[in-house]
Amino acid sequence: MSVTRAPETASSLQLCRLMRPDDANIVGNVHGGIILKMIEEAGCIVGTRHCNTQNGMSCTPLQDRCLAALVRVEKTEFLCPVFIGEVAHVTADITYTSKHSLEVQVKVMAENILTGAKKLANKAALWYVPCSLKNVEKITEVPPIKYASEEKEEEGRKRYEAQKMERLETKARIEEVVPPPPSPEDAPKEQHTVGFSQSSLIHLVGPSDCTLHDYVHGGVTMKLMDEVAGIVAARHCNTNIVTASVDAINFHRKIKKGCVVTVTGRLTFVSNKSMEIEVLVDASSLVQEDKGKYRAVSAFFTFISLDKENKPLPVPPLKIDGEEEQRRFEEGKARYLQSKAKRLADKERQQ
User: Fold this and answer.
1) Can you give the pLDDT at residue 286?
2) pTM of the shown model
3) What span, in angstroms and rounded, lies between the C-alpha atoms of 162 and 144?
4) Between 20 and 30 A from 161 (CA), which of 23, 71, 300, 307?
């Protein structure tokens, strides 16, 4: 992967990477988790660089440098698939800073290096806080950026207040315990039920997964979440599937090296052409017996089913069993309708 730093400011960055076969599924579509991981890497680099430098000079003493830690990813749309052999250009810009956090907006352009054709594949907004390298619990101050206008600064402030409120609301409802998927002999035999497709992945956090703090990179966690959501979607449809969008990803608590993470995905809502999958990440220490399991990350992923020509296919209806599944289905339907209305409104504004 190459890294290109914009010469005029430390608040811009571009990463370029050739998509290889191990980045994609069996039909050549690059996994959404790979794109999410690249997005987070770019955000972490530009955020960390900005928080440790100002006007090209160090703005913090050597003994109190910091590392930008991901706390939230706003709703992310996967606008078109990326394929093996294309080059992904990931551009990250810091667009808002508060006293202790910063917003990074990222765009992913996919380039066909044989034809020169380029397409916008993804846009995302991420929020980081700078954690001291000496004391990970200490949040350091963020150097301010210069805004193009007062209107831009005000728009950023409104985004900051909105995500702060959403994080608090989400945190209040994430303690629900998700039952583990049934063993193969006890798994529901009826297809298209929640239990039939529910899946979990267990991962031991090692050094290669971690930051300088020995805590997991946000991008590593998002990649695992996308993998589990993809398994759920594929089990439900039994077709090729791709990530269409990700609702806000909230990082509630840090995951340290040596923890065992359990990533669980389950269907919550199905429309004619899409599937919403709730993905929850729980963590527990492998070596500290007194540390119980806790909820670390939560999000909703949306997948679509594709035919051999990458055209959308109808999705089998979800069979609901019980009041709890019905409640989650209705909540998912509300999110689906809200997202659909927003897309239509954005389309009308662009015309």
Assistant:
1) 81
2) 0.88
3) 20
4) 300
